[in-house]
Every structure is written in structure tokens, then in C-alpha cells.
Amino acid sequence: MAIGRPRGSSVFSGLTLIFVGVLLLLHNYRGFALSRVLLHWWPLLLIGWGAIKLYERAVSSRSGEVGGRTGPGEVFLVLGLVALVGSVIAADQVRDKFGPDIMGWGHDVFSRDLDVAPKPIRARSRITIQGLHGDITVRSSDQPEIRVNGKKSVRGWNENESERKANAVAVAIVENGDGYEVRPSGANDSQVSVDLEVVVPKQSAVTVRNDKGDISVGDMESPVSIDSGNGDVEVRNTSGDVSIDMRRGDAKISDTKGNVNISGSGDSVEVVGVTGSFTINGEFVGPVRAEKVTKGVRFVSHRTDLTVSQLTGHLEVGSGNLEVVDAPGNVILTTHEEEVSIENAGKIKVDNRNGNISVRYPNPPKEDIDIVNASAAITVGLPESSNFEISADCRSGDIDSEFESDSLKKTVAQSGDSHLEGRFGTGRGPKITLKTTYGSISLNKTD
To answer: Which of 36, 93, 116, 272 is least enclosed by beta carbons within 10 angstroms?
Structure first.
């Protein structure tokens, strides 16, 4: 049988170009982070490549042709597309670090002050502040009016060009239904940024939306809602609920009497001194820290589901580590590939894998402890004065206990599995259930 010419991988080349083209098109839209998508999903390119190779080989075997081989053209295509996507991501990183106009070397920046007349408003009005590019600062006042100060900056080749663009930029305060809106006009040019300082009545409910730039809100007595595209967010000393939806940047919230809700994606998050609850749902690459949250913390990401009903100490999640200290309420955790450390908590229920778990009590525990792990160790530290009932199972690992009692019995099977069961102490105590596979269990004294 004659052997045909090698089949070209037109299917792979076409699908690859379509796939990369769609990614770059979506990248131009607000909220789509190309680098984050590729970080998690780049193996799909290899899977698709392999599937197409298998398909081409199957078709060629039926037609008597030679197919399914990887040619140099495909390799160069993949390398070229990788270089293209890498350049786009690198340009984004440079622009995010040094500013949106870093590519405009040689341009001069011309700044002009904003001239906005104050506007009297009704008490307890709803106020929306809309930004595009530039920082937004919101401060409170006892006066029933909206005041706007700020600066418009234009990057251009000469002063005449910048002056023309600056003259087209204005900020208006308009009545919108049952509330008021502060919005810029003529600032859609990427070379134009508008920094706003807005003073509003402290009892007004405030909503801030900004595409790019930092947002700062302080000393408000009503709810605060923030929609941030790319920039840091800071909220401090507020009485109402705080709601933040963000795509990129750091978030810091302090001294808030209401509930705090953060969603989306970003870098680091720090929440300190919250009388209400703190809920965070999304993907944040930096550490997430919480301290003194009266009504507890709820943290949900693609690999972690954590509920802490009360936090008098601190919590930190990041870089493969999860730490909870001084949580007198319940701690319920489902995660994987996290090194978990819990100290001085109430009732504990943890389900983990591929990460060690350490639990420590400075005082005898009063609530049940239930820990399930896989391919990693469990360590529990208790005072010698503790009373407890324990059931510990360790598959293909050993159990080591510093607590000795006639009521505690340890058995080791020929397969290498270990089991510890019984009671310790003179009084009735909580039940401790520990299970792990391919790891060890240690029961230590903290005195």
C-alpha cells in the first residue's frame, strides 16, 4: 500500500488561532484577566493538541495516509502564539505597575483643577459616584450638599493638544430618580484621567464605580457599595454595611459596624474591627487577613470553604497556609493542599487533603473536634488537665499519644493501620475524632 504525503495539521492550526483570538478579544473587555485564565487553564491547550493528533491519526489510518505527526510548522505556530500572548500579559503588568500611559514615553502630563459648583440635596439621599480613570476619594460632611474637587490630567505631545482634551472634560452632579449622580464627561480617552474628591452628607448611601484607579471612603453612617475594576480599595470608620465587587487590587476595611461583603478577584484583603460579619467569595492571590470580626467570617474560593462563627483573634489565608487563632465559636473548614493551623477555637470540623493539620488548645476544650485528612499528618495539642473521648484512625501510619490511661487503647494491624480509642480524664469531655491516610497522628500535651 502506498504511503501518502503527511497530512498538514490544518485542524489544529485553525482551532488554535480561533482559541487564542477569542482570548485576546475577551481580554479587551473589562473584567477579563487573561493572565489569570491562562495560569489555571493552560493545560487545555496541550489536551486539545493531543486530541487533535489522535483524531488525525485515526482518520489517516483509514485513508491510508500518514497523519498525526507534529510538524515544525505547528511547533513554530504554538511558540509564536505563546510569545504573542506573553507580550500582551507583560504589557498589562507593566501598565498596571507604572500607569496606563507608560507606553506613551515622550508625552508630557498637563493637569488642570476641576471647577464644579456645590449642589444642595435632600437628606439621606442615595448618591452614585461614577469614575473612569483616576482615583476617587469620598469624605463625609454634616452639610446637605455634594461638593466635588479634583484634578483632570491629560498626557499629550504638546500643551495645545492637552488643553483641547482638558477643556472637553467636565464633572456634573445630576439628579437621577430618587438620588443623585456624580459623573465625568469627555474622559473616555485613555490619555485622560480624572481624580475626584467628593464630599457628601454622612447619612447618604454611597455607591462608587470606577474602571481604573484607587477608591477611598471614610466616616459614613449609611451603606457603602463599591464596584472597582482595577485599583486599591479602602473603607474605614463606617456604620452601615460595606459591599465591594472588585477585579484587581488590594482591599482594606477597618472599623466598620455593619457587615462586610467582598466578591470577585484581586490581590490582598485586610479586614479589621468589624462589628458585623465578613464574607469573601472569590479568588484573591494575596493573603486574606481578618481580625476581630464579631459575627464571624465566611470565606469561599475555588479550593476553600471556611466558616468561623466568631473571631476575637485573627485569621489569615494565603500561600498554601490557613491560620485561625482565637475563634471561640465554630470553625468549619473544607479545603485541600493547605497547611492548616487552628489555635484556641470552639467546635472544630475540618476536611483536608495534601496538607498537615495542627490544632492547639491552651485551655481544655469544651466542644467536639472532628478532623479528616488525607496524605498528611494531624497534630492535636491539649492541656494535661483535659477530659476527652477519642477515636483516632490512621491508615498506613502511626499514632503517637503523650496521654496515658488505662481507658486509652492503641492497636496496630499487620497492614500498618493504627487505631486509638478510649477516654482520658476523670470528667466528661468532648469527643475527638481523627482520621487520616498515609500520614501520622500525634496527640501532644501543651502544658
So the answer is: 93
Residue 271: exposure state from Cβ atoms within 10 A (0-12, 13-18, ≥19): buried
User: Are 108 and 218 in a shared domain?
Assistant: yes
Instruction: Quote the domain boundaries for residue 149.
Output: 104-222
Count Cβ atoms below 10 Å from residue 105 Cβ, excluding itself. 6
Element (H or E) spanning 313, and its range? strand 311-318
Residue 445: all three cell numbers together: 500535651
Q: What is the mean pLDDT of each run of 10 residues along the chain (447 residues)?
A: 47 67 63 58 68 70 58 66 68 55 54 90 92 94 94 79 80 92 81 92 96 96 96 97 97 97 97 98 95 98 96 96 97 97 98 98 97 98 97 96 95 94 93 97 94
Among the listed residues 120, 127, 126, the one whose alpha carbon sits nearest the alpha carbon of residue 144: 120
199: phi then psi, degrees, rounded to nearest 5? -110, 125
| Same domain as 65, residue 49 | yes
Among 116, 108, 114, 113, CA closest to 162: 108
Q: By the 8 A CB rule, do 351 and 414 touch?
A: no
Site of grid cell 482634551: 165
Q: Which of 222, 248, 269 is the last residue of a domain?
A: 222
Domain-embedded: residue 268: no
For residue 412, the SS3 value is strand
Q: Are residues 110 and 82 in the same domain?
A: no
Does residue 324 sit within a domain? no
**86 and 187 in a common domain:** no
Determine the 3-state secondary structure of 406 from DSSP. coil
Residue matched to cell numbers 497556609: 321
Is 29 within a domain? yes
Number of domains within the chain:
2
Give dist(CA 345, CA 291) in Å, integer.
14
Q: Specify whether the CB–CB gap between 139 and 235 falls below 8 A.
A: no
β-strand pairing of 297-300 with 136-141: unpaired
Q: Where are the alpha helices (DSSP H) in 28-158?
A: 34-41, 43-63, 72-98
Quick one: 114 and 206 in the same domain? yes
Read off the pTM. Answer: 0.77
In whole angstroms, give the CA distance from residue 324 to residue 344. Answer: 8
